[in-house]
Design a protein that fits this description.
Distance between the termini: 31 Å
Order of helices and strands: HHHHHHHHHHHH
Strand content: under 5%
Structural class: mainly alpha
Length: about 250
Amino acid sequence: MAALFQDPYPLAFCVATFLVAGTIKGVLGIGLPATAIALLTLVMDPTEAIPVMVLPIIATNIQQFFFTPHRAETARAYAWIAVALVVSIFVTALFITRMSQSFLVIAIGVVMCVFAVHALSGFRIPVGRGPMWQIGVGLTAGVCGGLSAIWAPPIAMYLLSLNVSRDRFVSGCGFLFLVGSVPLAAGLTASGVLNSRTMALSMVALVVSIIAFRLGAALRSRLANDTFRKAVLIAFLVFGARLIVTGVTR
């Protein structure tokens, strides 16, 4: 931790990043990893940025899931997604150091762009609630999560396509994001990228994101949510496109 303060720029950038990302997460129920990775990769490699997000992801989703209704029902309803998510995130995260930095940057950018375009279009994919649908969603989300720490897009698309209520959407996202964060942390630790330096940054990010999440949650009922949501999604699209261009040209 002491070495972190010898170079205050990464620390200051981390604080600013998680103020923004935590607030967005508090308002929308999603968006912390996507916002954080888009900003952090401006100053660090993906294999350094991804482990920094581990503690904020765990903490904010504990708050999100355990302060919503329908917890037991949500866990039962999406049990197959959770199982597939845990396995695929852990296995994929083990191989993160074997991936080229360009590939990781492009993969993150593609995931962000697909999510933003899907959400902005309002298109709903006809989906089912059965085990095969859930396993497919869980595996897809897990591969994305293991590579980029962003597994929200497939899950959010699935829940939106099921046309669940706002409360059940927030509860479902909180449960599945929390479940996925445990194997992500284990896989990143086993691969060596969650180390003393990234853990120190993640602890700073944890404190900032908890405060920002509470602020965002308090603002949720006061803001014009649709306008804010569209602005965030457009920002995701821009960030994602930038990451793709960066990955192709680096």
